[in-house]
Amino acid sequence: MSVDPEWPQIDSTSYPYIFEKNVTVNLSNGSFIRVNIYKPKTADANQKFPVLATHGPYGKDVPYRYFHPKSFSDLEPDHQTEHSAWEVPTPRHWTARGYAIVRADEAGSGQSPGYLDILSCASIDAFSELVEWIAEQPWSNGKVGTLGISYYAASQWQLAACKPKGLACIVPYEGFSDHYRDMCRHGGILSNGGLDVIWHRQVGSNQYGLPGRAARNWGDDTIEGSMSIEALAANRVTLIDAVRPYPFRDGERFSSVAFNLEDVEVPVLSVANFGGIQLHLRGNVQGFLHSGSNLKYLRFIVGRHDLPMYYPEEVAVQESFFDAFLKGEDRVGWSRKGEVPAVDLILRKGNVGFNDPKAEKQFLRRQENEWPLARTQYTDMYLGADGTLGWTKPTIDAPRKVQYEAFPEDKTQGLASFTTAPFESETEITGHIVAHLNVSLGRHRWQKTTPSDMDMFVAIRHISSTGEEVYYTGPAGEASPITKGYLRMSFRKTNPQHPRHREWLPHRDYMPGDAAAMVLNEIYPVDVEIWPTNVIVQKGDRLILEIGAVELLGAGIFQHDDPVDRPEAKFKGTNSIHFSKNYDNFITLPIIPNSN
Ligand SMILES: *[C@@H]1O[C@H](CO)[C@@H](O)[C@H](O)[C@H]1NC(C)=O
Ligand SMILES: *[C@@H]1O[C@H](CO)[C@@H](O)[C@H](O)[C@H]1NC(C)=O
Ligand SMILES: *[C@@H]1O[C@H](CO)[C@@H](O)[C@H](O)[C@H]1NC(C)=O
Ligand SMILES: *[C@@H]1O[C@H](CO)[C@@H](O)[C@H](O)[C@H]1NC(C)=O
User: Fold this and answer.
1) How far apart are alpha carbons 242 and 362 in whole angstroms?
2) What radius of gyration, in Å, describes the C-alpha atoms of the chain?
3) What b/e string do you get for 6-45 counting C-beta neighbours within 10 Å, with b at 16 or more?
4) Cα–Cα distance for residue pair 590/282, rounded to 1 Å
5) How far apart are CA 492 and CA 227, in angstroms?
6) Residues ≥6 apart with Cβ < 8 Å to 556
7) If you measure from the C-alpha of residue 293 to the centroid of ligand 1, how many angstroms do you get, rounded to a whole number?
8) Which of 22, 143, 228, 318 is least surrounded by Cβ atoms within 10 Å, i.e. has the fewest?
9) Is 527 close to ligand 4, i.e. is its CB under 6 Å away?
10) CA torsion sign, 104 to 107 to 110 to 116?
11) Strand locations in 112-221, DSSP E?
12) Which helix (H) or strand (E) holds 438?
């Protein structure tokens, strides 16, 4: 018997579950990956279990407590365990409920050899084979489900579209489903900051063959031994290097992982975070809307991205869903279409502060049968050249423009803002917002470069009746606005013929043929997609619409500032919003009529 010095209460050879480490799974292409298996302890040695599987690069053996000590300490106590790992299900919790957990290191990470190329098609092919392998194991009941956050959610959509034998349902928490639009290029703008931080902090640090992992408490050293610096470099591609060369959706990087959501047919519980306005929201909503599943559910949450999947009330929902599809024990009706309302909303009403899970529990929930809500009244709110935002169209006697700077010396010059009067009554906004604007690009006096493109960042902020800002929790606990949108003007062309195009969600193809440069001082109409949201604006509250050429409130690590993607020579200039009889500028809000 050996005692784990970190967890003296635990006899490390005798967990309350059976722990098998570094099990080899051969892939049909001649390669292999290594997985950890955690199984319930039962009297019957032949018992078969439903299985929850994950496959990813953050380290099956990297203890959560070292991976992110602060986040670990904020977790629900029963998820603070010896085998807890970042963004994946807790073995101790699920084995106690009759589930086996399989946790794989993907190729090139942890104990799985190979080329480290996350989010690649090879990674998804391996995940599919892993699921089929699991379904055939004598200890599995043949039904595999998936549960995980972010990376471990995004991969589920793609996995499900491959239809591996044995996959019975998916529960993606806060992931993306469209590599281009949701993750890598927001409105065409490279979302470099997040890709870079995530890769270096938690992917590269776990590369297969990287020396010193055990010494850093970052899992075990590589079974086959460490690799040289040169061999390591030759065996990986960073996310940003993989993506940066491709501005369009037909680029090899995006095309190779493109899939059709309609191929997702297994039951889906898609969990979207209203605060995930850079990564953890859009794809869950789109995934719900367009997956081919007969049984699909959309659940909204709030809070930091690392914690909610482990909240007791969330775990209870996950468990009832998995029990229905992996154990055949459907207590609430998930498997009978129409019995469980398809949408479970969280209503963001009042100022509860941000990054405070306890306070956020004050937000009520409401079930709905569809998304967006059928009773939505799309209502325009007009921008005024005087910085106002109002329900009535302003009368404009002479053409005016509101200007702000791209690459300003002083960041406050990098945006324009438009503020409403205090709301006269409580107003619910739930759904998708579009900003309709007329904009132009100009140069400064003595500016040597001629700009040819313009990046737009849009945010909607909330001011309470008493004058303080109502902040919402961003992915890492940042103070965030209600919601945001992004668009590179050269991608302004929409495709209204596309079956996914909606008045409330303009569809863009982002193909080379769509790119359209801007001629200086010519005025272009544009519809800017803003990410789906919910807020209840109370009587006396105000909204502020910000339109900028700079990153707005709450961007956190998700900066769009790659010098190759946004060169100053191309973007530096004066951006203008035009107002005249011909140029109405407005946002279309999804207003939900008061049900009282
Ligand atoms: C991999 O797992 C096996 C089996 O549990 C164990 O003997 C071995 O020590 C593990 N390797 C490492 C590097 O932890
Ligand atoms: C996996 O492949 C290796 C190498 O080809 C082979 O030695 C091993 O027996 C295979 N394992 C299984 C379980 O098939
Ligand atoms: C086999 O698949 C793995 C995992 O996706 C990949 O890393 C490896 O390069 C592939 N090997 C070959 C020979 O294609
Ligand atoms: C101004 O923009 C709005 C919204 O994009 C559009 O409907 C309108 O046609 C534009 N005006 C002109 C003259 O292009």
Assistant:
1) 42
2) 25
3) eeeeeeeeebebbbeebeebebeeebebbbbbbbbeeeee
4) 16
5) 47
6) 278, 474, 475, 476, 478
7) 40
8) 228
9) yes
10) negative
11) 140-149, 167-173, 185-186, 189-190
12) strand 427-442
Q: Which ligand approaches the C-alpha of residue 380 most closely? A: 4
Tokens coding 116: 């480290």
Amino acid in position 587: I
**Cβ neighbours for 74, distance < 8 A, ≥ 6 positions apart:** 304, 306, 307, 357
Whole-number Å distance between alpha carbons of 341 and 118: 35
What pTM, to 2 d.p., does this model score?
0.96
Sequence-ordered list of residues with C-beta below 8 angstroms from that of 506, at least 6 positions apart, any chain: 434, 494, 496, 527, 529
Best residue among 26, 31, 35 to mutate for probing ligand 3, ranked by most atoms within 8 Å of CB: 31
Averaged in consecutive runs of 10 residues, what is the pLDDT profile of the chain (596 residues)?
50 81 97 98 93 98 97 96 97 98 98 96 97 98 98 98 98 97 97 95 97 96 98 97 96 96 98 96 98 98 97 98 98 97 98 97 98 98 97 93 94 95 98 98 92 97 98 96 98 97 98 94 98 98 97 94 96 97 96 82
User: Under DSSP, is residue 528 helix (H, G, I), strand (E, B) or coil?
Assistant: strand
| 356 Cα–ligand 3 center, Å | 43
CB atoms within 10 A of CB 281: 25
- Name the residue with the closest Cα to ligand 1, atom 7: 21
Query: Are the CB atoms for 10 and 65 separated by under 8 Å?
Result: no
- 584 Cβ below 6 A of ligand 4: yes
User: If you measure from the C-alpha of residue 509 to the centroid of ligand 4, how many angstroms do you get, rounded to a whole number?
Assistant: 21
Let me know: does 456 contact 524? Beta carbons within 8 Å: no
Name all residues whose Cβ lies below 6 A of ligand 3.
Answer: 27, 29-31, 107, 114-115, 122-123, 125-126
CA angle (223 as vertex; 28, 129 as ends), nearest 5: 20
Tell me the ligand closest to 383's alpha carbon: 4
Pairing between β-strand 377-383 and β-strand 542-548 as defined by DSSP bridges? unpaired
Which residue has the least CA distance to atom 5 on ligand 4? 436
State yes or no: cis peptide before 372, omega within 30 of 0.
Answer: yes
Lining residues, ligand 1, CB within 6 Å = 21-22, 220, 223
Among 61, 52, 12, 62, residue whose Cα is nearest residue 34: 61
**HSE (side-chain half, CA atoms, 13 Å) at 176:** 18
Pocket test for ligand 4, best of 489, 580, 584 (most atoms within 8 A of CB): 584
Residue 211 and residue 459: Cα distance in Å, rounded?
A: 44
The pLDDT tens digits for 511-560 are 999 999 899 999 999 999 999 999 999 999 999 999 999 999 999 999 99
Query: How far does residue 26's CA lie from ligand 2's centre (Å)?
Result: 6
Report the separation in Å between the CA atom of 396 and the middle of ligand 4, taken as the mean of its atom positions.
15
Identify the helix (H) or strand (E) that includes residue 135. helix 121-136
Cα angle: 435, vertex 191, 476; to 5 degrees: 95
Helix axes of 151-161 and 282-290: crossing angle, nearest 10 degrees: 20
Cα of 249 vs its chain's centroid, Å: 19
Residue 488's DSSP bridge partners are 455
78 lines ligand 4 (CB under 6 A): no
